[in-house]
Structures are given as C-alpha cells and as structure tokens.
Amino acid sequence: MRELPAPVHRVRTRVRRVSCSGELFADVTLDFGPGDGFENEVPADLLPAPWAERLAEGVREGLDGVRARVTLRSAHHRPYAHPERSLGTAGYQAAREALARAGLIGPGEPRTSGGD
Predict the structure, then answer these.
(1) What is the Cα–Cα distance from 22 to 81, expressed in whole angstroms?
(2) Which of 62, 78, 88, 105 has a C-alpha 20 to 30 A away from that of 3?
(3) pLDDT tens digits, residue range 28-53?
(4) Which CATH class is domain 8-101?
C-alpha cells in the first residue's frame, strides 16, 4: 500500500449543485499527511457523527488505497441539502486534490466524481 509522501495542508473543497432533484452543498477543509487515520476537529453540534463518518468514507474512497492521516479542520453544510451525499462527495474530491498536490495522480486522473 502506498503512503502519502509529504503533508498537504489546507485542502478546501466546495460542492454546490442545484437541480430539480434538490441541492447539494458542502464546504470542507482538511489536512493530509503521512500515516493513517481520520481525526475530526469539528464539534458534533456543527457536524453530527453520521455526517462526519460519511465525509470520512468519501475521503477513503478518494484516497484509493493510499495511506494518509487526515484531519478535518472545518465543515459547513446545509441540513436540507442532502448532507450525506454532499459531504461524501466533498471528502472524495478533497482526497483526490491531496493526491494530485502530492504528485501521486496526474492531471488526467478523475477528481470530481465519487462520494455517491
């Protein structure tokens, strides 16, 4: 299993989509580094545990087997805007951006899907 070679700080991802089936909205900032695990620094009253877990699942999916220590620094969402899907997508996109900044994926690698 590969490991993230160096820290990647302040990866901010925003998901915003409006369609006839509803709205998606999430704005998250995470730090990535060598190691393993997911730490949530956002209070539970701002990001309930099930939603934080969905974001962590999106991150794991986006890392695609690369080991990384991830710290969630901030998360904003709208409870009526499908938070599980929004946060999962944001986590996936943040992980892909971290891999790109670390040089582990190239410009042709997908960065904007997943999390669904």
Answers:
(1) 7
(2) 88
(3) 999 999 999 999 999 999 999 999 99
(4) alpha beta
